[in-house]
Amino acid sequence: MEFAIGAVAACGACLMSNPMDVLKTRMQLQGELRARGHYVVVYKNIFHAAYAVAKADGILGLQKGLAPALFYQVVMNGIRFGLYRRVLDSGVISRDDGSVSPLGCVVAGAGVGVIGGFIGSPLYLIKIHLQTQAADSIAVGHQHKHQGFLSAVYSISSKEGIRGLWRGASTSIPRVGVGSASQLFTFSKSKDWLDHYELYSRDSWQSTFFGAMTSGLVISTCMSPFDVIATRIYNQGVDSKGRGMLYSGILDCILKISKSEGLRGFYKGWSAIYFRIGPHSFFNLIFWDFLTRLHKKYEKKE
Description:
mainly alpha
């Protein structure tokens, strides 16, 4: 049941945050491996990006990649939240007063994130491909030209084999590990802090809101470089042997972005990441909290 609760909560949040995910992906690919001032700025900021996408691709263009995004949430967050709830309920990282151990929280959060992210990697790959596809006037990054979710699965697996679906999976380890650890740690400790100072109880929606928005800020800052790297590697084109045409791996990607785009390159789309993660974290975590409490309530009655 813990896995189902995590999956349902994540899907509910994904429906609301996917448009911002599309904008984030486009902004991260804009000016790829080009110095500032040496490329056409298609997306000036998240508001302009939303307008540009809606104008060129229609309002539904803001929901590109929704199907694989939802399936990814089911797999990744179903596993992540499900395992994390099991760890919390086991008492391994909990203290007598109900608070959680900082180190235990970070380790558990990173561990469950890496597991979920690796298993769900093929869905993330396809999500990136579909979210990147755009009208020629606003296209950035490599355009894969898939006809849809199933078409992408068939196209990638037929050309690169089953292993091709896990291309770039290594980037999910630092990305999801850092993101998951920072989210669950900040969320849990924020609720502990509010409860300790008797501002809001751990079970209140105010506590969940404060914890989610705080964790969103921390995640955006900590995860942005890894998110940019993941987007670039997942989206790059491949040669006849399935090798990346721009990056041979994570280290190569880091070196090339540093050389051509500088430190700012690793924070492209930061605002879009926050405006996606903040609301996504809030709805995701509040759904998770609510469904978990509801499940425990009915479990006691039985």
